[in-house]
Amino acid sequence: MKGFAMLGIGKTGWIEKERPKCGPLDAIVKPIALAPCTSDVHTVWEGAIGDRHNMILGHEATGEIVEVGELVKDFKVGDRVLVPAITPDWNSLEAQAGFAMHSGGMLAGWKFSNFKDGVFAEYFHVNDADGNLALIPEGVDPVVATMLSDMAPTGLQSAELANIQLGDEVLVIGIGPVGLMAVAGANLKGASRIYAVGTRPKCVEAAKFYGATDIINYKEGPIEDQVLELTNGKGVDRILIAGGNVDTFQGAVKALKAGGIISNVNYLGKGEFIKIPRVEWGVGMGHKTITGGLMLGGRLRMEKLGMLVQTGKLDLSKLITHRFNGLEKVEEALMLMKDKPKDLIKPVVIVAEDLMD
């Protein structure tokens, strides 16, 4: 089979590999639709998780099952499925401790294009099919459903990690596709005023659609100064970080109320340390919590998110701005994520012929 791979740091290309083999609990899936991610950019061009050689990229897909292991109970060949970016080993000690995404070690539930070949190929392997796959709900567009692989669960989890309470004022830093889902998550959790940081017009428009009440342009001055002015010097209750870099935390701590929570779901691709301003952190005693986490994976999460889409509680279609037809277009779509033109939120590559425009 062919796949689009990381050949080494800063290098990508098409390669030929053997079709993956199916274990007794596993499934082999062919893609219906694929989406490149900024994480792929960090991995390839920043070497954020170290060098990878001839590893097929991609962790966002919907697909059709072409083979199942003899011990798989709930899925069969021909099923069209949601595929989470994180596919834990559900019998691991880490899963039993409540951190399945770290099964086998920190971040090890993230297997696609990290420890094994990803989804940008004619076929890909899914471990523990019964635990990690979910049927695409009836009436949900399989192309739009690619946003359930990573964008939706990552952004929504930032709102959950922040433990947003009814009426909280929330700042969302970064309104790419993950940040937009963080805005949606804050709205679903009952935030009152949602301040969204970003400048690209398409993203600003979508942020307002998902519930942002105020837009902050970081080009017009430090984010924390603008937040403090908008809140009469009080700051916000919760901050969701879905963009920026290791320096973003300094301003976030300054913009946060005592007792507040900063929740990070941004993939920090470079930089050695995160700096925390001593005084604004209450000289260590301000009860300002900083947390962050890899998205939840697994079937239950996928089924619940699928229900949000099926019932109309979450409209993912606003995230997709560019559509391509054919697996060979993966490279072009990935370069869009790397270059980030102003009209981009998220590209999708449609592989199933019956869904092509």
Features:
alpha/beta; seven-stranded mixed sheet; globular
What is the secondary structure topology, with strand pairs?
Layout: E1 2-8, E2 11-16, E3 27-34, H1 38-45, E4 55-56, E5 61-68, E6 80-83, H2 93-96, E7 124-126, H3 129-132, E8 134-135, H4 151-161, E9 170-173, H5 177-188, E10 194-197, H6 201-210, E11 214-216, H7 223-230, E12 236-241, H8 248-255, E13 256-264, E14 289-292, H9 299-310, E15 320-325, H10 330-339, E16 346-350
Parallel strand pairs: 9-10, 9-12, 10-11, 12-13, 13-14, 15-16
Antiparallel strand pairs: 1-2, 1-4, 3-5, 3-7, 3-16, 5-6, 6-8
Q: Classify the secondary structure makeup into a structural class.
A: alpha/beta
Order of helices and strands: EEEHEEEHEHEHEHEHEHEHEEHEHE
How far is the N terminus from the C terminus? 25 Å
Mean pLDDT comes to: 96
Strand content: 15-25%
Q: How many strands appear in the DSSP assignment?
A: 16
Number of distinct helices: 10
What is the helix content? Answer: 10-25%
What Rg is obtained from the alpha carbons, in whole angstroms?
20 Å
Largest sheet: 7 strands, mixed
Mass-distribution shape: globular
Describe the oligomeric state of these chains in a short phrase: single chain
Low-confidence stretches: none
